[in-house]
Amino acid sequence: MLNKCDLAEAAALARARLEPYRAIGYRVLELSATQDASALRPFLTGHSSVLVGQSGMGKSTLINALLPEAQAATREISSALDSGKHTTTHARLYPLDANSSLIDCPGVQAFGLHHLSFGGIEQGFVEFAAYLGQCRFHDCHHTHEPGCAIRKAVEAGKIDARRLELFQQITASKA
């Protein structure tokens, strides 16, 4: 979900960053919690959903848009840091209806994947699926090895280079 679409310049940058995800089939819902968040409600119906993201992304504002009675605390963006201020200090469950709930979580600084294996991380990159097992070396890390099918797919424009870079950053941080 891309929130704050009412902020034209920031929304345009965010759309560009999300384009590789759209290209591989992820649906991106665009909205502004301060204007109308109703487009999100059908995706929440019948589920327990969690809002996760950096401080200042509008998670609590979104809660208030969907459930005005929630009165979740919100704060302005820090002009000194150009980022959100921590407002939500603990996770809170909000019932939407008898079969649906929404969890508001504190903003995150980092998201750890240390519990995942290298192969588990590979599997998380859905656009890699067609190329896994096709590398020259069975233990290819998709960085510098000759005959890497993933890097060849990037060179051919079949995988976005930024996605390979993200994969490499994640796997390097595990080393």
Overview features:
three-stranded mixed sheet; alpha+beta; 3 strands; 175 residues; elongated
**How many H/I helices?**
6
For the record, give the distance between the C-alpha atoms at the N and C termini, rounded to a whole number: 31 Å
From N to C, what is the helix and strand string?
Answer: HHEHEEHHH
- Estimate percent helicity: 25-40%
Give the averaged pLDDT, no decimals: 87
Low-confidence runs: 77-86
Oligomer: single chain
Cross-sheet strand order for the largest sheet: 1-3-2
Coarse structural class: alpha+beta
Silhouette: elongated
Radius of gyration: 19 Å
Q: In this structure, how is the largest beta sheet organized?
A: 3 strands, mixed
Task: Describe this protein's structure.
Mean pLDDT is 87; it is low at 77-86. Strands 1-3-2 form a 3-stranded mixed beta sheet, covered by helices on one side. Helices cover 32% and strands 9% of the residues. It is an alpha+beta fold. The protein is built from 6 helices and 3 strands, in the order H-H-E-H-E-E-H-H-H. It has helices spanning 8-23, 41-44, 59-66, 118-124, 149-155, 161-174, and strands spanning 48-51, 92-97, 100-104. The relative contact order is 0.11.
